[in-house]
Amino acid sequence: MTSSGTNTRSEADGQGREPVSTAWELLLPVASAPARGRGRALQSALREAVRSGRLAPGTRLPSSRELAADLRVSRGLVTEAYEQLTAESYLRSGRGAGTWVSGSARAAAGGARDLAPRALGVRVDFRPGTPDLSLFPRSAWAAAHRSVLGRLPHRALGYPDPRGLPELRNALAALLTRRRGVVADPERLLICSGVAQATTLLGFVLHGRGMRTVGVEDPGSPEHAALFASAGMATAPVPLDDEGLAVEPLVRSGVRAVVTTPAHQFPTGVAYSAARRSRLLEWAREADGLVVEDDYDGDFRYDRAPVGALQGLDPERVAYTGSVSKSLAPGLRLGWLIAPADMTGELVDRKRTMDLGNPALDQAVLAGFVTSGGYDRQLRRCQRAYRERRDVLTRALAEHFPGTEVSGIAAGLHIIARLPERWGPEEEFAARAADAGIAVRLLRDYGTRRPADGCVRLVLGYAHLAPADILRGVRTLAACPRQNPC
């Protein structure tokens, strides 16, 4: 590994494997993490690198001595990280043979937002994160596009305001105030290329203010670690309980910023309780900290009106992010960020240097779609379809997997299914499903904790699947041969 943090070493293990080349700079934020959190940070960074595919199966890792020297951490810390990930099957090792990325490791590529193309040979894909793209309102969008082209002045096609088109910021501010209870000043609303860019922008600004570690929910979206790493920030996992993020571990972590999904926690589906939301804001005030609210699917609630955004309770302590990736399509790359007033200028400056702003024409079309009522109609259409598919999935699980407990069903685009112990072990269940052409995600893939029981916990996305495909997928899963049949 060179002094720049990039290992260009190419070697084989003596068994005919192809040489590999790996960018170890992804792990460098570990060195700047607080001393007591470096072990967790290294394990999290390595785990995410394997999940995302940055460390491909068969990649040989540096020796513990080499990596410890490069990261300027103790060798024992690296050894412990290697042992932990070997126990979790992310890595494999043999006496005198070094440490390698396990061939059984499966890339998660973003967890909640599964960025990997759907695998060839998959018959039914229950991986969460994608809406039904066939519901995209092509006719209404095309009409809005024609209307915009007919009235947009020539000057609007020049370099855009990096904050975003004023018409779109005004339209979204009104929408978010009405639907999500957000305190949305158009002058503080920044249009971004989805929540991913909003998160990265916040990471750069927090880094510029001297922060080096951000708290993240455990379990939570693996994507956050990679996004913050791109801004030079490490992440520290903070556990959850039945009410949401556990505040006492958050206090002990020493971080001053934390990413949350309070309306519908990803992936557990927990809606933060009123008491926990209040306590979290108290922490932010006491620590002079920041809560980053990822409202990734807050509009999709089926049992009652959506829970209001946390940001509405304290807009100077909460940075609010959202997008149209679940309501329209992720390919539009349109999202928003509303941050505390004292951060807005820094965020706009960073956005300007990053890309000079989002495409003006796309912004104008979305503004027209929102103000015409098309966006509200789209949400109602999606809610009807997704509620039906949720019900189909829960009924199918009850029929084919009797004794299964489901949770997180009140909102969102996925559920948690806890199958009885007789369907385990989890790794074998996932392997049997893959062999049958059914793609699933285990809850354990999204966090560091491992349940003591032998039950299989699945995160099942349903929004993108037709009811017939849901039924076919569940039936196929139930028919997979297992070692301990009912």
From TrEMBL:
<dbReference type="InterPro" id="IPR036388">
    <property type="entry name" value="WH-like_DNA-bd_sf"/>
</dbReference>
<dbReference type="Pfam" id="PF00392">
    <property type="entry name" value="GntR"/>
</dbReference>
<dbReference type="InterPro" id="IPR004839">
    <property type="entry name" value="Aminotransferase_I/II_large"/>
</dbReference>
<dbReference type="GO" id="GO:0008483">
    <property type="term" value="F:transaminase activity"/>
</dbReference>
<keyword id="KW-0663">Pyridoxal phosphate</keyword>
<comment type="similarity">
    <text>In the C-terminal section; belongs to the class-I pyridoxal-phosphate-dependent aminotransferase family.</text>
</comment>
<dbReference type="InterPro" id="IPR015424">
    <property type="entry name" value="PyrdxlP-dep_Trfase"/>
</dbReference>
<dbReference type="InterPro" id="IPR051446">
    <property type="entry name" value="HTH_trans_reg/aminotransferase"/>
</dbReference>
<keyword id="KW-0238">DNA-binding</keyword>
<keyword id="KW-0804">Transcription</keyword>
<keyword id="KW-0032">Aminotransferase</keyword>
<protein>
    <submittedName>
        <fullName>PLP-dependent aminotransferase family protein</fullName>
    </submittedName>
</protein>
<feature type="domain" description="HTH gntR-type">
    <location>
        <begin position="36"/>
        <end position="104"/>
    </location>
</feature>
<dbReference type="InterPro" id="IPR015421">
    <property type="entry name" value="PyrdxlP-dep_Trfase_major"/>
</dbReference>
<dbReference type="Pfam" id="PF00155">
    <property type="entry name" value="Aminotran_1_2"/>
</dbReference>
<dbReference type="InterPro" id="IPR036390">
    <property type="entry name" value="WH_DNA-bd_sf"/>
</dbReference>
<dbReference type="InterPro" id="IPR000524">
    <property type="entry name" value="Tscrpt_reg_HTH_GntR"/>
</dbReference>
<keyword id="KW-0805">Transcription regulation</keyword>
<keyword id="KW-0808">Transferase</keyword>
